[in-house]
Write a structure and sequence with these properties.
alpha+beta; 15 strands
Length: about 300
């Protein structure tokens, strides 16, 4: 007998197959899990799974938190990668469980590779060592309430925010991109270095917002200017700089704005306009908790 997972209309079900008879004797549908997004290329497949509800808590206080999280639209998600004689690079500590003939490689790449990875860690906030898992089987990464985005590259390069790389097909190269002008490094809000992902394959990013709140702009020898730090991805072919919103003192006074992130050229830019709102709400909730001492007689 062998237990297999089967997909039907985006839901995960469990099938039990008995050798010798060649039929599925039992099938149970686990409607609590949904495939939010997926991408497949050759021998590599990536899926974003979602737990539609969490009802297993035995503690009332935890159940209350889960209830309000559900009402707020928060859901637990998990990345699944299926390998067929292929490989995946993941963030250290992200592995949850795996099944099949899969081996782990330190993916250091000798002394030169070690130095390169340590430099990347210092410059981009990405992990120094991203383990490489190779073989045939299934890999499930740790569940979390984060948002995950699947990006497919075809002999191209993208530059992404620091720290949002989560995993990728082993055919992709994850490196460092430096800002090409002084204004971008000093005033662009992204620092001097960002993460660059190049090649052909599938990668998954851990996004600050869900895909439904991301605006994708395809520039055709055009200019896009943003007042804030909420761009999360751009094509390597798009030039990035920081410019003042108005030329001269009069222009700056009348515009009411300051430094604008400026994207020029032909390629793709992804914006997360709601990111600053979440950051502001989070900062406000933290400050409200620490602004006044706790009063046991009036905890509210």
């Amino acid at each position: 007998m062998i237990i297999i997972f089967i997909y039907n209309s985006g839901h995960i079900c469990l099938g039990v197959v008995f050798y010798g008879c060649g039929i599925i004797a039992e099938t149970k549908f686990y409607n609590n899990m949904t495939v939010l997004d997926s991408a497949e290329k050759g021998n590599f497949k990536a899926e974003i799974l979602q737990y539609n509800s969490l009802t297993g808590s035995k503690t009332p206080s935890v159940a209350k938190d889960l209830y309000y999280a559900d009402k707020a639209g928060m859901s637990l998600k998990q990345v699944k990668v299926t390998l067929k004689d292929s490989g995946v690079i993941i963030e250290p500590g992200a592995l949850y469980f795996q099944k099949g003939n899969i081996t782990c490689d330190s993916n250091i790449g000798g002394v030169g590779g070690l130095a390169k990875k340590m430099l990347k860690n210092k410059l981009t906030n990405e992990s120094t060592f991203n383990p490489l898992y190779k073989g045939t089987g299934e890999i499930f990464l740790e569940p979390s309430f984060s948002h995950f985005l699947i990006v497919k590259l075809e002999n191209g390069s993208i530059i992404v925010d620091k720290g949002i790389f989560y995993c990728s097909e082993s055919s992709l190269d994850v490196g460092v991109a430096s800002q090409k002008n002084i204004s971008a490094g000093l005033f662009g809000g992204e620092g001097w270095f960002q993460t660059k992902i190049s090649g052909t394959g599938i990668c998954i990013l851990e996004s600050p917002v869900p895909m439904s709140e991301i605006l994708k702009y395809n520039l055709d020898n055009e200019r896009l200017q943003v007042d804030g730090n909420f761009s999360i991805l751009r094509s390597d072919t798009v030039k990035f700089s920081a410019e003042r919103s108005g030329k001269g003192i009069a222009g700056r006074l009348t515009s009411g704005e300051g430094i604008l992130q400026t994207f020029e050229g032909t390629g793709t830019v992804w914006l997360a306009p709601t990111k600053p709102v979440y950051n502001s709400l989070f900062a406000g909730s933290v400050s409200s908790l620490t602004a006044a001492p706790y009063n046991k007689n009036n905890p509210a």
